[in-house]
Amino acid sequence: MVAAVRVANENGHLVLRGMYIDERLQRQGIGSALLAAVDSFLGLRGCWCIPYAHLRDFYAAIGFGEHSAGEPPEFLVKRLESYVAAGRPVVLMWRPGEPCSCGRPD
Length: 106
What we know:
alpha+beta, five-stranded mixed β-sheet, 5 strands
């Protein structure tokens, strides 16, 4: 596999779950191209992600920002807490937009 990205519907919320680029092919624009595809796929819909902190600016390129307004879904709070407890330097980010109409609400 060269590269992959996954956006999942979790409890009625879109979540960017992960992006993978083969180490030998990193820093060649593949990640940016995948992120542009995610941007196109999301359109005006909102989306969550929990990336490593050093990738804040990368995800900010398509409108993700550190979440500060309102309450994130409980399942994401628990996931964030488990990542932090495991020593992962991650942040919760939100891309504002319309609610997902792809499943049941949280």
